[in-house]
Write a structure and sequence with these properties.
Number of strands: 39
Shape: globular
Largest sheet: 7 strands, mixed
Strand content: 25-35%
Low-confidence stretches: 386-393, 718-724
CATH architecture of the domain at 142-377: Orthogonal Bundle
Mean pLDDT: 88
Strand order of the largest sheet: 1-6-7-5-4-3-2
Distance between the termini: 46 Å
Number of helices: 10
Radius of gyration: 26 Å
C-alpha cells in the first residue's frame, strides 16, 4: 500500500495501516498503526512488524512494536531553504544511533535503533521522498512515557530515592553518548522517555537530530533556551561552533536534574542572563525528603549552579578559534566571564552530585521508616474484581513462542538451557540470560549472543544469579564472586568484607532494587548471629545487617515499607523475617516455623508480602502470617508484582495470579488462580517479567509464554495519575 498524506506534518500517514516501503520498493514488513506524536521536525508512528523482514532492510533484532520517526514535509522544505540537506540531517541521527546500538548489550538508557530508510509519500502537491528512522517503542504503561509527564504527575514532588534512580540512568545514558565522541546538544525532559512502573523506571535519552557526531561535518543549528548554555545561543554560520563540547551537555543535564528535583523548569527571566541560578528552595514542588537537612539543600544548589554556570571551563577555550568566538559571545552575555567555571565533563559533575543525592536518599529512608510511611513512590493496585468479566476469562494465554536461533548463529554453542535465578528482566521488556558460560540478550523473543571475554567464561559458568541494577549494569553473581556488565564492559566487584579484611560467608541470595545491589551472605565465624545483608552504595558496601533467620536464605524482596527475607532453618523448616528501613525486624513464627522451607517471596505496594513453599502460599502483614493457598504441589520458581500491584507466582509447571489485595476471603477460598498449566513433557518455567502488554514467562528451553490479563487496560492507561 502506497503512503499517502494530506497534511505537511504527515499526521494522517497511518490511516489504513499502510506498510512502510523502502526507497528501492521493498516492503519492510512494518505496518504503520497509529500516530504517537507530532514534534517540531518529525512525526512519530507506532509501527508493527507483521512478518519476517527482507534481509538488510532493518536489524534482525527489530522488535514486534517500534516507533517510526518520519521527517515532516514542512521541515524538509525549511531545511532546504536554509541550505541544509534534509536527508543528511536524518543521516546524522541514524549514524549517531547506530554507533550507540553497536554496544552489546546496549545501554537501556538510550532509545534503541533498528534501521533507517526513505519512502515516497503521495500528497496533493505530488510525490515526495521522506527519510524515516526505526526506533525503540518506549511504552511507559499506566505511568506515562515522558519524563516531563511523570515529574508533573508527582503531587508531592519526586522523592529522593526515586530521583536518585532516575538521575543515575540519565547520567549513564549521557556518559555513553560522550564515550562515543558525540554531543547531544538538546537534552531536556521532553527528550527523555521512561519505561517501567514508577518504582522500577528506566529513563531513555532520545532525539539526536542536532547531535554533534565526531567524523560528521554537517552543521545543524538548534538549542532549547531553558536548557542550553549561552555558547549554544550564538549563531555560528556555516562552521562548527568551537565552544560546544561535553560541558554544553553538562549545562542541560544540570537543568534536567533541577527539573526532576524541583518539579518545574529552572529557567526564568529574573537574573538568568546575568548568571543568577535560583535555589531549589524556590521550587514549588520540592519533595519534603530534600529538606530533612538544610545544609544538603545548600550543597545541592552549589553543585547545580556550577553545572549550569555561564562561565565555560578552561578546556573549552583551547580549541582553534574558541577564544575569538568566546569573546564575541561574552560581549552579548557578560556573565560568561564571571563566577565558577562549569564542570568540563559529566563525570566531574556526577562525582559531586551523587554523593549528596545518596546521602539525602538514605536520610529520607531512615526518617520515613521512623514515621512509618513509604520511603518512595510505588505502583498502585487496581483490584481485579472491579472488572466485569467472568473468572474463567480473567487471564488469557495468548501464545507460546518457540525459542529462536540466537543471533548471530554459532553452531558450536549448545541449545539454550536456562535456569531459575539466571534470567534478568528489565522493566522495558529486555532480558539478559546467563546460560552456562554464555550470555544471551533478548529483544522481544529474539536472543542474540553477547560474547564475554574468554577469561571471564569460567566465572560466568559458576554464576547462580543475574539481575539488572540500573546504572552499574547487569550484576552476574556467584557464591564468591560478582561482576557488573555495562554496555559490553566487564567490571569485577570484590565481595563484601568486614573492617580489617575478614571474610564473610558465601552469598545465598541477591536483590537488584532501586538501582542498587543487595546480597545476603551466610553466617560464618565472624558473623554476629545469622546471615547478613550487604548493600552497594556509591561503589562500596554498606553493612552488615544481621538477619534473624537462623538458617539459609533462599530469597529476598523489597517493597515500600521494607524487605522480606525467606528461607529455611537449620531444622529444614520455613523461616521468614521482615526488615523495616528504621532497623526494626519482625520474625514470623506462627504458620511459618513448622512448615516447609520458603523458596520465593515478593513484597506488595502496601504492607502485605507473600512467600511460597512447594506446598503453600503464605501472606504476611505487619506481624502475622496466614495460608492463602495450600495445594500448590509444585516447586516455586519466582514471584513478582505486576504493573497494577498484584503478585504472581511461577512454579515449574504453573503460572498463578492473586486476584486482589487484602486478606483471604471468608470460608478459606483461595484468591490465587491458575493462569497456565504446563503440559507434561514441556520444559519447566524459569522466570517471569511484565510489560504493558502483559506477563511473559520463559522456560528452560528459552521459549516464551505470553499471558494477557483481562485487566490489561489498567496496565496501559492510567485511571488515577501516579503520585509520589
Amino acid at each position: 500500500m502506497t503512503l499517502r498524506s494530506n497534511v505537511d506534518d504527515l499526521a494522517d500517514l497511518a490511516q489504513g495501516s499502510p506498510e512502510l516501503i523502502d526507497e528501492s520498493g521493498i516492503a519492510t514488513g512494518v505496518v504503520l498503526r497509529r500516530r504517537l506524536g507530532v514534534g517540531g521536525m518529525a512525526t512519530v508512528f507506532l509501527g508493527e512488524r507483521t512478518r519476517d523482514m527482507p534481509h538488510g532492510v532493518l536489524s534482525p533484532l527489530t522488535p514486534h512494536k517500534l516507533a517510526i520517526k518520519v521527517m515532516q514535509l514542512s521541515t524538509a522544505r525549511e531545511l532546504a531553504r536554509m541550505g541544509v540537506d534534509p536527508l543528511r540531517l536524518f543521516s546524522r541521527e541514524s549514524v549517531a544511533l547506530a554507533r550507540l546500538a553497536e554496544r552489546k548489550p546496549p545501554t537501556p538508557f538510550i532509545v534503541g535503533f533498528y534501521g533507517c530508510g526513505l519512502s515516497d509519500v503521495e500528497t496533493k502537491h505530488g510525490t515526495h521522498r521522506v527519510p524515516w528512522l526505526a526506533l525503540e517503542y518506549v511504552d511507559g504503561g499506566n505511568a506515562g512515557s515522558l519524563l516531563t509527564d511523570r515529574v508533573l504527575a508527582a503531587r508531592q514532588g519526586i522523592d529522593p530515592v526515586r530521583a536518585l534512580r532516575l538521575l543515575r540512568g540519565i547520567v549513564d545514558g549521557l556518559s555513553v553518548i560522550h564515550e562515543e565522541k558525540m554531543i547531544h546538544r538538546d537534552l531536556k525532559p521532553d527528550n527523555v522517555l521512561v519505561a517501567g512502573p514508577i518504582d522500577d523506571e528506566i529513563p531513555k535519552l532520545t532525539d539526536y537530530g542536532i547531535t554533534r557526531v565526531e567524523g560528521l561535518e554537517t552543521v545543524v543549528a538548534g538549542a532549547t533556551l531553558a536548557y542550553a548554555g549561552f555558547e549554544q545561543l550564538m549563531p555560528s554560520g556555516d562552521f562548527r561552533n568551537p565552544l560546544i563540547g561535553p560541558w554544553s551537555d553538562v549545562h542541560a543535564l544540570a537543568a534536567v536534574v533541577w527539573f526532576v528535583l524541583g518539579g518545574e523548569q529552572w529557567f526564568d527571566d529574573h537574573g538568568w542572563y546575568d548568571g543568577q541560578r535560583r535555589s531549589l528552595r524556590t521550587a514549588s514542588r520540592l519533595h519534603p525528603g530534600f529538606v530533612v537537612d538544610e545544609a544538603l539543600v545548600d550543597a545541592l544548589d552549589l553543585v547545580l549552579s556550577r553545572g549550569a554556570s555561564p562561565r565555560l571551563p578552561d578546556v573549552a577555550l583551547t580549541l582553534a578559534g574558541a577564544q575569538t568566538f568566546h569573546d564575541v559571545c561574552a560581549t552579548r552575555y557578560p556573565a560568561m566571564r564571571v563566577g565558577e567555571p562549569r564542570h568540563a565533563d559529566v563525570a566531574s559533575f556526577a562525582a559531586q552530585l551523587f554523593p549528596l543525592l545518596e546521602h539525602v536518599a538514605e536520610a529520607w529512608a531512615e526518617r520515613a521508616g521512623r514515621d512509618n510511611v513509604p520511603a518512595t513512590s510505588y505502583r498502585a493496585t487496581v483490584p481485579v474484581e472491579r472488572i466485569s468479566t467472568p473468572a474463567s476469562s480473567r487471564a488469557t494465554l495468548v501464545d507460546e513462542v518457540r525459542a529462536r536461533t540466537p543471533h548471530p548463529p554459532d553452531p558450536a554453542r549448545p541449545p539454550l538451557a536456562l535456569s531459575p535465578g539466571k534470567v534478568a528482566f528489565q522493566a522495558d521488556g529486555k532480558i539478559l540470560v546467563v546460560c552456562g558460560g554464555d550470555l544471551y540478550f533478548y529483544v522481544d523473543d529474539q536472543p542474540y549472543a553477547v560474547v564475554p571475554p574468554t577469561e571471564e567464561r569460567a566465572r560466568i559458568a559458576e554464576a547462580k544469579w543475574a539481575t539488572h541494577v540500573g546504572e552499574p549494569g547487569y550484576a552476574i553473581v556467584g557464591e564468591r564472586h560478582l561482576h557488573f556488565l555495562r554496555t559490553g564492559k566487564w567490571r569485577a566487584v570484590s565481595p563484601p568484607t568486614r573492617e580489617g579484611g575478614a571474610a564473610v560467608g558465601d552469598i545465598q541470595a541477591i536483590l537488584g532494587s532501586r538501582g542498587r545491589l543487595a546480597v545476603i551472605t551466610a553466617e560464618n565465624d565472624e558473623s554476629e548471629g545469622g546471615p547478613e545483608l550487604w548493600r552497594t552504595s556509591g561503589g562500596h558496601w554498606l553493612g552488615p545487617l544481621p538477619i534473624p533467620l537462623n538458617g539459609v536464605v533462599h530469597a529476598i524482596a523489597e517493597g515500600p515499607y521494607g524487605m522480606l527475607v525467606v528461607g529455611s532453618g537449620t531444622n529444614g523448616r520455613g523461616r521468614a523475617s521482615f526488615l523495616a528501613p528504621d532497623g526494626a525486624t519482625t520474625v514470623f513464627a506462627r504458620g511459618v516455623s513448622h512448615g516447609p522451607p520458603l523458596l520465593v517471596g515478593v513484597c506488595g505496594n502496601e504492607r502485605e508480602s507473600w512467600a511460597a513453599s512447594h506446598t503453600q502460599i503464605l501472606r504476611f502483614d505487619r506481624s502475622a502470617a496466614e495460608v492463602e493457598h495450600d495445594a500448590l504441589g509444585d516447586v516455586p520458581v519466582c514471584m513478582a508484582l505486576d504493573l497494577v500491584g498484584l503478585p504472581w507466582l511461577v512454579t515449574r509447571r504453573r503460572i498463578l495470579r492473586r486476584e486482589t489485595s487484602g486478606p483471604t476471603p471468608a470460608g478459606g477460598a483461595s484468591r490465587w488462580r491458575v493462569v497456565c498449566d504446563r503440559p507434561a513433557g514441556a520444559a519447566p518455567f524459569v522466570a517471569l517479567g511484565f510489560t504493558p502488554e502483559g506477563a511473559r514467562v520463559l522456560d528452560a528451553a528459552g521459549n516464551s509464554v505470553h499471558v494477557v490479563p483481562a485487566d490489561v487496560e489498567h496496565w496501559r492507561f492510567s485511571r488515577v495519575p501516579p503520585t509520589s
